[in-house]
Amino acid sequence: MTLPREIPDPLPKINPVPEYAADGPLKARYEETKAAFQVPWMGVVTMAFAHYPAFFDALWQGARELCLSEEYVGFCAELRATTEARVAELAPPPIGGQLAQAGYGAREIEAVRDIVEVFSHGNFPYLTLASIARTLLEGGALGEGTKVTPFEGRHAPDVSAPFVLMERHHADAPTRAVYDDVMATLGLPFVNTDYRAFARWPTSFAMAWADLKPHVGTAPYSAICQEVHDTVLAQAAAFPNPGGLDGAALRAAADQDASAGEVLEVVRLFQYLLPGLVTNVAFFRHQLQGEA
Predict the structure, then answer these.
(1) Domain extent at residue 30
(2) Helix (H) and strand (E) counts for the chain?
(3) I want to staple 262 with a disulfide (CB 3.0 to 4.6 A). Which of 41, 116, 258, 279 is the partner?
(4) Is the pTM of this model over 0.90?
């Protein structure tokens, strides 16, 4: 099935359940998700899904074995490599020299690189899960096979990054202005975790965003986002289904929380936004890897 990449209009209201507010079974689901994806944070996407507990529980119980498989991890790694190669064609300008001139030491620049690396890895499992959810809610299905190979070992980057989020109420006026610009330019109703983590170094974040912004909405940039969208949805329909994920059951679970239609709009929002997010993070990564 073909699903368009389009942002819901009007935008649905999202109600993410933050990690500090999760307890009992939901806290366990959060910990399982982070362990499976080998990430230090719960994405806003899954925290928004968790506002609908029956839906999120059904989705995660059905997807967990797949998410822990070589098939899932391997696809995410391949999609990341392809995305980063395509973003390189946009010729992101290196900013290391500018950061050094601004007073950043080598250790600080490396810390920025490390946090970008964490998101460069971690966003793809979240994108893929959101795409599976949309596929099922829209009447599609996963592949017919049920066998997967458990992934053994570590697939996350071997970095130690300071995971400090610059919340809007803590940020200074220039950083809040960048947040506003990001939301207006990308059509976001919120500031992603990634951007709040990058804003731990506000001058670096401002430089990186200033170079990225002119690309947003251009034909080459949009083509990359569309390619990511198409690739991940095609794979969602091809994955084995060891957990027996079923669209009708998932819609029924969503109806227990609110309505399948309401949940679908939230899923559509994130499935629209995440291809742009992985593209933007790939752009930031290239900026920091380049020589200047």
Answers:
(1) 19-146+162-289
(2) 12, 0
(3) 258
(4) yes
